Amino acid sequence: MTEAAKVKPTSSISRIWIIPILVIIIGGWMVYYQWKNQGPLITIEIHSATGIEVNKTPIKVRDLEIGQVKKITLKPDLEGVLVTARIDANAAHLLTENTDFWVVAPRISFSEVSGLNTLLSGSYIAMSADDTGAEKLHFTALERPPVTPPGTPGLHVILRSDDEFAYKPGDPIIYKGFKVGEFEDAEFNIEERVVYYDAFIESPYHKLITKNTRFWDVSGVKLLLESSGVKVETGSLETLLANGITFGVPDGVPTGQQVDNNTQFTIYEDVSSASNARFKLAAEYLLLIDESVRGLTVGAPVEYRGIEIGHVTAINSFPAVEGNILEQDYPIPVIINIYPGKVRQPDNQQGLKAIQQTIRNWLKKDLRATLRMGNVLTGGLYVDLQHVSNPEGDSQIQTINGYEVIPTVSNEFTQLTQKADAILDKINQLPLLEMVDNVQSAVEDMKLAAQSVETASDDFDVLIADIDAKQLNQNLNQVLVSLDSLLQNYSDGGLSKSEIKETVDAMQETMRNLQPLLLKLNQAPNSLIFNDSNSSGLEPKAKR
After folding, report:
1. Of 22, 258, 302, which is closest to residue 157 (Cα–Cα)?
2. Which of 69, 158, 257, 405 has its CA 20 to 30 A from that of 137?
3. Closest by alpha carbon to 125, among 199, 70, 175?
4. Reported pTM
5. Which backbone phi and psi does 470 adopt, to 5 degrees?
6. In whole angstroms, what is the distance from residue 305 CA to residue 317 CA?
7. CB neighbours of 89 closer than 8 A, spacing ≥ 6?
8. Distance between CA atoms of residues 55 and 239, nearest Å
9. Distance from CA of residue 251 to its chain's centroid?
10. How far, in Å, CA of 319 to CA of 77, rounded?
């Protein structure tokens, strides 16, 4: 008997499917994990995609890679490209409104050399590390890397200039020879026609910036021909090669309190302009110059007793008087100002009124203005206010176009010129032609006298030539022989000593007797020929 077969049901699912299922589960978990932990996608507007490649160009923060470029497309307006990048989740908190992006590539300019390490590794997109502010996923890249590295401690300031200064990002800010900051950016305001610069002062030098700090230009070398002489100004070696500025607190001004970020300052032309900027009020006056103003410049000092109290603000810049400069008697208008702060008055309306009242009182008496030469080399002039004894003109104060007029007197150079002209006039009045004729006549007479002397000299030479020198020598020899014989005779006893003495005494007595006769001949040589009737009165009378 056969046994009945046992039928067992087969499995509906093969064990071989376990492996694919596990792969699917693991793959799904990995996709979920990747999706869960991946960072956001951002878009960056860049002017050009030079050096940027998809899935190769990284995004770095402080040289740490935190993302990668995934896509590059043109902007709809064709004025740039849009770079799409994936940022790691652990860096997503850095995507804020204060975050900046820029392309790091080799860059060589006059003021900087940067990005040379990308010559081998290639360009990359740098990102600043700033987690403050609201979240942001669309950015516009900077055209160039920021001059100041992100996170650098210090102070950001805004500098304003309406002069012809041109500073570039990277130009230095100098303090006492040390580089303490740099220019970061520049923007020209068309409406105000003023240039605004973003600058950064590094720590700890940012503590030097206070409310009373002044900035001024020290670019290159400045050769100034001022009324006081030649002045050369220069900064450091960096400012010789590129533009730069410096800063400080003017003398006599308190340091002041420190300022906050983005405080605005003005860049002045030089240290003098920066120092004078503290004087807000000034009394203005008008000078009418009747002589040449060559050598007088805008900014020339106004002095009183050798102390600078103001400066010249304008020369012939407005129609202060009627007429034109081509007229002979046209006075050249010059405007000056006087600072109350420079004469130890408060820099307010009270100090201004005190200055104006003092000047009025002096104008009614003897205050006058004159142009003086400050330096012979440069020929620069300055305005000197002085008290003149017995001044000419009316004592009433004259006002033209709202300006009080300070009367002027001639300067020293003009006075010297006038004296020189007077001397020349006197010289012109001299009878020079007659003097020349007399001099010519005297010269002719001198020539005749010289000829006569020459003729006499020739005659004398002839006379000397006529003298028989040999005969003269023979006579001299005879005299010497006779003298020798006399002495020999004396030595031999020819004449005694007493006899010679008696002979000498007799000769002396004879000479004494001849003295009155010689004196008479000396006083009146003709007395031996002509009888003088008055001579009897001179004869001494004998005593009775």
Report:
1. 258
2. 158
3. 70
4. 0.55
5. -65, -45
6. 28
7. 37, 38, 39
8. 44
9. 19
10. 55
Distance from CA of residue 105 to its chain's centroid?
42
Element (DSSP H or E) covering residue 399: strand 399-400
The number of helix segments (H) and strand segments (E) in the chain equals: 9, 26
Q: 10 Å Cβ neighbour count for 242?
A: 17
- Are 175 and 249 in contact by the 8 Å Cβ rule? The answer is no
Residue whose tokens read 């300022």? 259
Distance CA 474, CA 467 (A): 13
Number of CB atoms found within 10 A of residue 401's CB: 10
Q: Encode the chain (544 residues) as per-residue pLDDT tens digits.
A: 566 666 666 556 667 777 888 888 888 888 777 776 678 899 999 988 888 889 899 999 888 898 999 999 998 888 889 999 999 888 888 888 888 898 888 766 555 555 555 656 678 898 887 778 888 889 998 887 877 776 788 999 999 988 777 788 888 898 988 889 989 888 888 888 899 999 999 999 999 999 999 999 887 655 555 555 555 555 555 555 567 889 999 887 888 899 998 899 999 888 888 888 888 889 999 998 888 888 888 888 999 988 899 999 988 876 666 667 777 778 889 999 999 988 888 888 999 999 999 999 998 888 899 998 877 666 788 899 988 887 776 678 888 888 889 998 876 555 555 556 666 666 777 676 777 777 788 888 888 888 877 787 777 666 666 655 566 667 677 777 776 776 666 565 555 666 667 777 777 777 777 777 667 666 666 555 555 544 444 455 555 4
Tell me which residue has tokens 């020819």. 494
Two tokens, residue 217: 């230009």
Distances in Å between the Cα of 362 and the Cα atoms of 356, 401, 507, 519 are 10, 21, 97, 84
Cα–Cα distance between 466 and 341 in angstroms, integer? Answer: 101
What DSSP line would sit under 271-289, residue for residue? HHHHHHTT----EEEEEEE
* Nearest Cα to Cα of residue 101 among 121, 117, 113, 85: 85
Q: How far is it between the farthest Cα atoms of the chain?
A: 239
Neighbours of 15 (CB within 10 A): 7
114 forms bridges with which residues in the sheet? 107
Residue 223 main-chain phi, psi, to 5 deg: -105, 110
Identify whether the C-beta of residue 147 lies closer than 8 Å to the C-beta of residue 156: no
User: What whole-number distance in Å separates Cα of residue 362 and Cα of residue 345?
Assistant: 17
Q: Is 294 helix (H, G, I), strand (E, B) or coil?
A: coil
Is 256:207 a contact under the CB 8 Å cutoff? no
- CA 378 vs CA 67, 230, 231, 294, 373: distances in Å: 66, 7, 11, 11, 9
